[in-house]
């Protein structure tokens, strides 16, 4: 009940955050500089917002999407906030096993840890 109430009203729950909390608020003060995050669909909507905020917290963000044009725009947008943000874009079509394999090979070649996958 409390969960639904706070979801509808946006009022904070026991965590101190509610459905109206932003990613920026929730990650305030977090240093993600040792983390690598792959964000599928990170070129638009909630994926882009997640990529933006993780990059803002200094994570190494890899935006994995089908459309490389929108990925480039997303990267530009993030770099406008911090030109040293670590943002890479990589092609990934989750409907294609070939694309997933090729993405995985490229990612492995970067020799980065994988801490967050969204
Ligand atoms: C990141 O890694 C370095 C080297 O291992 C370490 O010294 C530092 O404390 C780490 N930073 C965070 C925020 O975990
Ligand atoms: C910009 O990003 C770099 C790399 O993540 C980070 O070291 C630096 O502190 C960031 N600058 C600001 C103003 O957030």
Automatic annotation (TrEMBL):
SUPFAM superfamilies: NAD(P)-binding Rossmann-fold domains
Protein's UniProt name: Short-chain dehydrogenase TIC 32, chloroplastic
Pfam family, one: adh_short
PANTHER family: SHORT-CHAIN DEHYDROGENASE TIC 32, CHLOROPLASTIC-LIKE
Gene3D superfamilies: NAD(P)-binding Rossmann-like Domain
Source taxon at top rank: Eukaryota
InterPro entries reported for this sequence: NAD(P)-bd_dom_sf (IPR036291), SDR_fam (IPR002347), TIC32 (IPR055280)
């Amino acid at each position: 009940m409390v969960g639904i109430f706070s979801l509808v009203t946006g009022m904070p729950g026991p965590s101190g955050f509610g459905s109206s909390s932003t990613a920026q608020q929730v990650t305030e003060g977090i240093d993600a500089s040792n983390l690598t995050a792959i964000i599928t669909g990170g070129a638009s909507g909630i994926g882009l917002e997640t990529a933006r905020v993780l990059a803002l917290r200094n994570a190494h963000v890899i935006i994995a999407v089908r459309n490389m044009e929108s990925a480039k725009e997303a990267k530009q947008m993030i770099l406008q906030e911090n030109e040293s943000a670590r943002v890479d874009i990589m092609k990934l079509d989750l409907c294609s096993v070939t694309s997933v394999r090729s993405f995985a090979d490229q990612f492995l070649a970067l020799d980065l840890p994988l801490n967050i996958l969204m």
